Amino acid sequence: MFRAWILAASLAACTTQNPEQTEQIKQAAPAAPDVAARTVKTSPDKVANGKRTYEQLCVSCHGENAEGKVGVAPSLASKTYLAAAGDELLIHTIQQGREGTTMPAWGLKVSRFAAEELVAYLRDLNPVERAHLDESPLKADLARGEQVFSNVCSACHGRTGRGYQEAASGTAIRGRAFLSNVTDGFLRYIIKHGKSGTQMKPFRTESKIAVASLTPEDIDSVISYMRKNSH
Ligand code: HEC
Ligand code: HEC
């Protein structure tokens, strides 16, 4: 969905010689999509219907109160996740599912309107302000990214990043179905702040509960490594 933008952004990053030319390319490149944006108008009816659909179709995997079940399905109640994931990202994920994982594509069963009701329900359960995502170009070193992935991330997300499919406790973060729908700003935010209420702890250097401290360059590098080694 956002691949065209990613390509344009990386092309823009490669061209630096001629300032005039760089300026033109900068203007030609579309702005990063605002993945944290809120678009769904909510109402008590929508929330009630969303709850009903959730209990029919989602609760078996995502659990009571959408808190997730380790090894089965991730939390949809995490405040940092809900701050960074905008309504269109949630709707797209619900309707398209996550190819290569057990998250079904609900598009035939769950209409756009029903998906909006689900979003209204999830937002009502855990109201949180939207996050401001840093979409500046990555400052990445691929070799460093590979080290970070294998030393830190693979313990929970699996050696190849296939998540539950590798009997790991985290999700499939190297899956294209996931990566093609999130921006670098979204990934930076989640890696830095973690997924609150889950085993995905914050990795920023100043965090006291971090499993490991990662510098902004480590974080950019691992994002770049994941994107180059997606499946
Ligand atoms: C058969 C189990 C199963 C069912 C039923 C299911 N999901 Fe999922 N869902 C998953 C799994 C597994 C993932 C994570 C896949 C991955 O990326 O590794 C997921 C991921 C998601 C995500 C993305 C969360 C994140 O951390 O990025 C959303 C949103 C979501 N599901 C919503 C729903 C909704 C709404 C329903 C009901 C209409 C539903 N799911 C039903 C298994 C399920
Ligand atoms: C201690 C285990 C652990 C480690 C180490 C870990 N993660 Fe996670 N991560 C998880 C879990 C568990 C989840 C899913 C949380 C849930 O159940 O909702 C997750 C979720 C995520 C998500 C959100 C994915 C989505 O579907 O929205 C991203 C992005 C992520 N991790 C990236 C990373 C990166 C990059 C690293 C290495 C720097 C890393 N994680 C290290 C456990 C971990």
In words, what does this structure look like?
The protein is mainly alpha-helical and 231 residues long. The chain has helices at residues 3-14, 19-28, 44-57, 59-62, 79-84, 87-96, 112-125, 142-157, 176-179, 184-193, 216-228. It contains eleven helices and no strands. Helix 6 (87-96) packs across helix 7 and helix 8 (142-157) crosses helix 11. It is globular, with a radius of gyration of 18 Å. The chain starts with a helix and ends with a helix. Mean pLDDT is 90; it is low at 1-17. One heme C is lined by residues 68, 74-75, 78, 148, 152-153, 155-157, 169-171, 173, 178, 187, 190-191, 195, 198-200, 203, 211, 222.
Name the poorly predicted regions: 1-17
State the shape: globular
Number of domains: 2
Structural class: mainly alpha
In helices, the fraction of residues equals 40-55%
Short précis:
The chain has helices spanning 3-14, 19-28, 44-57, 59-62, 79-84, 87-96, 112-125, 142-157, 176-179, 184-193, 216-228. With 231 residues, the protein is mainly α.
Topology of this protein?
Layout: H1 3-14, H2 19-28, H3 44-57, H4 59-62, H5 79-84, H6 87-96, H7 112-125, H8 142-157, H9 176-179, H10 184-193, H11 216-228
Helix pairs in contact: 1-2, 3-7, 6-7, 8-11, 10-11
Bound molecules: heme C (2 copies).
One heme C binds at residues 68, 74-75, 78, 148, 152-153, 155-157, 169-171, 173, 178, 187, 190-191, 195, 198-200, 203, 211, 222.
Features of this protein?
disordered N terminus, Cytochrome Bc1 Complex, Chain D, domain 2, mainly alpha, 2 domains, 231 residues
